[in-house]
User: Fold Glycosyl transferase CAP10 domain-containing protein from Plectus sambesii.
Amino acid sequence: MEGAAGYVALCVVWIVAFGGGSASSVDDQVCASPSDGDCNDRPADGGGNKYAASQQGDVRWQPYLHAIGAAMAQYKECPDQNCSCFQSQWESDLEPFKDGIDRKMIEEAKDRGVHYQIIDHKLYRQEKCMFGPRCEGVEHFILELIDELPDMEFILNDRDYPQVPRRSVGNKPIFSFSKTSEHKDIMYPAWSFWSGGPAISLHPTGIGRWDKLRDSINKAAERAPWSKKEAKAFFRGSRTSAERDPLVLLSREKPHMVEARYTKNQAWRSLQDTLGEEPASEVHFEDHCKYKYLFNFRGVAASFRLKHLFLCRSAVFHVGDEWLEFFYGALKPWVHYVPISTSLAELQQLLDFAAANDFILHLIASRFDAFPFSQFL
Assistant:
């Protein structure tokens, strides 16, 4: 199958492969009381008025409260029984191929990724794969559903960076796990749901086995409900981008407010790579759940950590909106996470807002339970 329909089928079965279970109601999970006390006074989760009333005495918070109210007024929960939450992303990614995918497109794309074919419910792959565990991670889920897939062939990018700039001539049908609005790649669930994620000391063969990590982090979140979490911003990771520097520097200035340090990665050569201090030890995802505010930064492309952070039921501060994964479009700022610019210019004020509006941050942190694929994200 060389047409775009084959690509739609593959997108659907990959996402279905990760799904299962029904989402719980956010109203069952969140109490408006900062102490998790009597929930009978809990405000309804959906209108904007309660946010405007939260801190009327401090005009500093009004822009944030207005943004939250506006976001909630426009937000509609996605159904948990189908993939409609991601339909707009598929449609956007496949728009260039609305007239079909021909042999020439496939041939021109072959040097940008790994060539796969499915013929008579058997999976074939070119011999060379630059990152073996990444191909293994993708193949694991395809093979689980191989009997349901029609004949097709496709090119899968196993690198970090997308391969089809929007300014390029012609359309190349290439699956990539991450991209920006300046790329025409077709996004798909990353290999790291099974294997091939970043290799760190805590995961020397790479972060993977999402099913096991999900269960482990969920248990850690149960041990650290909101009322027991430490009211600090937390980050631990390598210095792949200077965008992370302001948070690390604020941590050194105000350790009571922020715990953020750089770790060593494969590119580490000197203290300059960790902003003048010795690299810190890595921290298990489960131990992130001890903190109320977790920061997510991009890496070379989109960060693999975001889906893990949400499981802690902590408030995720998502930095920047340039880099995407297939599910990002269904996550809404001020509904599922706290948005913050890549410059981090508003960092201090946002942390002050969080401290002064604890129950609102609790609502945001808990709302991910109502996300339709929280069972696999």
Q: What stands out?
A: The mean pLDDT is 83. The domain at 207-370 is CATH 3.40.50 (Rossmann fold).
